[in-house]
Structures
1.
Amino acid sequence: MTSTLELARFVQETDYDDLSGDVRDALKRRVLDSVGIAIAAEVAEPTKIVHRTVTELEDGGPCTLWGRDGGASPVQAAMHNTALVRYLDYMDSFLAPGETPHPSDTIAAVVAAAEFAECTGEQLLAGIAIAYEIQAELAWNAPVRDEGFDHVTHTVIAAAAGVAKVLGLDELETQNAIAIAGTAHNALRVTRTGGINEWKGIASANAARNAVYSAMLARNGMDGPRNLFEGQKGWQDVISGPFDVDLTPGERVHDVMTKRYVAETYAQSAVEGVVELAEREGLDPANVSGITLETFRGAKLIIGGGEGNRYEVENRAQADHSLPYMLAAALLDRDLSLAQYERERILAADVQDLLRVVDVTADPDLTERFEAGEMPAVVDVTMDDGTTYRVEKDAFRGHPTDPIGWDGLEEKVDTVAGESLPDDERDELVETIRTLEEHDVTELTALLA
């Protein structure tokens, strides 16, 4: 049975030299993906709210607030910068049978702590590897969604472990950091059920902030309940049930997907499929009488109507968690990017009308295939004359079986952040991340200021 000590020893024993070349490369691609998305999110009102709140509470600090003037404490920088990474719902995901968290939710917290501690790029990569590994293993072996907890319940533990690494905490301090984080910050699933609101895109930032604060408390001598997992009324007793983890030096990063479309994780194959179908058949949306999606249980539950009405779509947070909206917009526009989440587009008559003829069903066979590692989708589009066109998908570009490399990620950065990032700055940012081992963390964060 997993213990807090087991995680703390993993943190202590895992260093940059333990990471394979493939793991290092994959982690750096995760960093590029995350900062590109963050740049694009700077103009979003919820991230501006976070910025106003952070700067209202603090007047400067040693850590960079990405995309803004001034700085903040590592705690508030983690909050602000994680909000940027997460808000657009364009970040990475780890695909486990019972949980799909976003390991990139931990990156900005580790970066903030590493900047505070004046770490090297090698030390940063070790911290991120630890956070990714723990996030993935918790999701795989101790899913919490069906128990009513949000996946950021994993994030706060994983981020605290990565932060403990870059802060140089010893084994006891690391236990305390993980213990405080995991005891005090367990988020409810209601964040992603019913009528979704903007907190959905900010909840992981709150977890990242709490992770850094927990580690800072431990660094300054605060004890925590070091039997967090195994203790009476502890994490396994109350939240997850007994479980074991099998921790490797960051190898779980290879099981992380990159989003091709601005859409909830489980929608990626279906959206890619409907775009392919529309382009292949030259479909006229005005003549579409129905769209049927057969998918797996998790997709039906989260974005297909199992946890709330997904046909009443009025804002961005609701749109990117509504399969009816995403499929309708993708068929109409042959794309699902930032433009499809502008309020005017969301409320437009054509997409509002079309989303109401989308039907989503869960298929047990597709659920089995998902749990075996695929992301299957079967999309049928029926026309007014009765003709039906079908596309079947096993996965999508960006899935671990079809990963997006450096060229694809640079293209993604250009697409989402090109208007905000001149070519020379973009090239310098990409090259710095590609060669992160050769730089200090402050060199990276200077490019994000």
Note: The radius of gyration is 21 Å.
2.
Amino acid sequence: MAIKRNGTNESDGAGVHDGSTGELVDASSGDLAASLPESLSIAISLPTTVHAAPEDELAVAIVEIPVNPGAVEVTQPTTTSIDVVQPATTSISVVSEESVIVPLPESDGKNYTRRNRRDGEVSTTPETASMLTADRLIEKNHKRRTAPEGGWNAFVYAVTFHLVNRGDSPKVRARKELEARIDKQFVGGARFVPVLTRKGGVGKTTVTALLGMALADAREDRVIAVDANPDRGTLSERVNKQTRSTVRDIVTLAPTITSFNDFSTMVSRDDTRLDILASDTDPLLSEAFDENDYNVVADLAARFYSLVLTDCGTGIVHSVMRATLQRADSVVIVSGGSVDEARLASETLTWLEANGYGDLVKNAVVAINTATQGTNLVKLEEIEAHFKSRVREIVRIPYDPQLAAGSVIDYATLKPLTRASARELAALVMDGLPVRQGA
């Protein structure tokens, strides 16, 4: 070990030279510490430590020369310079209002339209791609009109191999227009139409059945006629009975009727798909059918039917009549052809006006049954003129032997004039019904 003292290296020995006197001082003496200078530096050279990788690390080394973690070469990071390019300045030129607009090239007027040009005609100038439209290139398939109905027009359509179609005959067109009026569509709930008069025996029940059959025959929805006569009505006898149920059964079983199938088991249906709900056959029970009972029946009928006709009794002051008129969207007044029958029908209108049903009177339709006695002795034109001053429309119901019998009505075998009158009555009633509920 070499000791550097004041810049002079001395050899290791038994003593140390005194720097101030130059004498050798005994190192073993106790004055050695006192003789040492205040500043003393010692330089020691150590051997370089070499790290040797174990054999197990060398066995799994990826490279042939293992990395010596004891000697890591640190490289000085290089400086990367980035050149920033100044974006070029974009100049916007403003065109003054005095700039000249280059006009489109002149054409002959046929380059952009094919008007007044026959198919296949070549344009004098080149056409643009927009001229190749579907209307120009695709052959239109014209829909063939439906085959005409009625006499001569149908014959001409057949002999010309469907080339000449003159359409339906005037008679057929009138029939289809009438059917369209009867098949009027509604928005909302059911429509109620009571048929009433103050006098019995004028054909009120027959008119109710005829009206219902004409409606059901032309319409696709459901139509029902309810016999609300508290004095033993006969509406159910106008069709073939299919059940013994009555309005009383509807009232009793109302909580259990949850579907149309449940309701349909209590009505009778004829060939026109008109459903009829019978009244009580026992006069003692029929008197018990009151306003509340009718409301129960009407509420259920409104759930399953679009049109509800009500065959009312002659007692217009009965509570059932009040409930019927409160639901009515229109009314049909039935009158006979005699003097007293026409007068009582007119008094029915007066009673309605006096009790707050003036709107129903203005919208009413009067059906004059010409099959009653005395019709041939009176002037029907005068009766019609009287009612036209009070109601919306008048319809004559002609005499028909099947109706006069007072039994089951077969709508298909009625006289053509009778069916035409029933259809006219149905169309007039539909004309007066609102499309929307409450309108």
Note: Residues 1-14 have pLDDT under 50 and may be disordered.
